[in-house]
Amino acid sequence: MNDWPLMSSPIMPIVICLAYVYVVKIWGPQYMKDRPAYYKLKEALLPVDYSNSESALRMLRASYLFYILKFFDLLDTLFFVLRKKFSQITTLHVIHHGLIVVNTWPGARFVFGGHATFFIFLNTFVHTVMYFYYFMGAMGPRYRKFLGWKKHLTTLQITQFVVGLIHCFQLIFIECDFPVAYCWWIGGHQLLFLYLFIKFYKKSYVIQPKISSAPDKNGKNK
């Protein structure tokens, strides 16, 4: 069962549970303190606010910043090239970084805020964890002993796309004043990324470990 997501170690389930407790006991009550209760699910599906209100302009700036940050994400590939880490410039890496800018431009341009806000926060959180992992790896050999959770990082990325797809495609079944066409646009990209990340997960954590542990012709493990 070590090859099954969320089964090889209790670390990720513990992190998820701690995040759950934080959201429902601390962040959630504080967030809802001065807001009306959501009695219906469709009330939580927010349309885009195209007014000049302070909250609308704040979301516009946040969406634009999220879009601009995706250009900075391209730099990590350049660093791989400069360090001759060509093995890390995988098809998944190039497709993911190459499409994400095109993917987020319509959001920042036409549907900033509203229903799309959820994925912005979700993706930002995942990238914060991811770049923290890279940061620890760049601090030198003595910190690399703390990097044994790369598999869990990939699981987190896969979870991101599953949750994002559920959140995205619910507009197909629930009426909301939000462009459904954009949901198909962003949902299609998430399906592609989900497929690529699952393929990467199987190759890196399921197939390769079995090959490495298989005995060679002399009866010894490779």
Automatic annotation (TrEMBL):
Keywords assigned: Fatty acid biosynthesis, Fatty acid metabolism, Lipid biosynthesis, Lipid metabolism, Membrane, Transferase, Transmembrane, Transmembrane helix
GO molecular function annotation: fatty acid elongase activity
Subcellular location(s) of the protein: Membrane
Mode of membrane association: Multi-pass membrane protein
GO cellular component: endoplasmic reticulum membrane
Pfam families: ELO
InterPro entries listed in its UniProt record: ELO_fam (IPR002076)
EC numbers for this chain: 2.3.1.199
Entry's Gene Ontology BP terms: fatty acid elongation, monounsaturated fatty acid; fatty acid elongation, polyunsaturated fatty acid; fatty acid elongation, saturated fatty acid; sphingolipid biosynthetic process; very long-chain fatty acid biosynthetic process
Catalytic activity: a very-long-chain acyl-CoA + malonyl-CoA + H(+) = a very-long-chain 3-oxoacyl-CoA + CO2 + CoA
Keyword match Disulfide bond: no
Transmembrane segments: 6-27, 64-82, 112-134, 155-173, 179-198
Family: Belongs to the ELO family.
PANTHER family per UniProt: ELONGATION OF VERY LONG CHAIN FATTY ACIDS PROTEIN 7, FATTY ACID ACYL TRANSFERASE-RELATED
Protein known as: Elongation of very long chain fatty acids protein
Originating species: Daphnia pulex
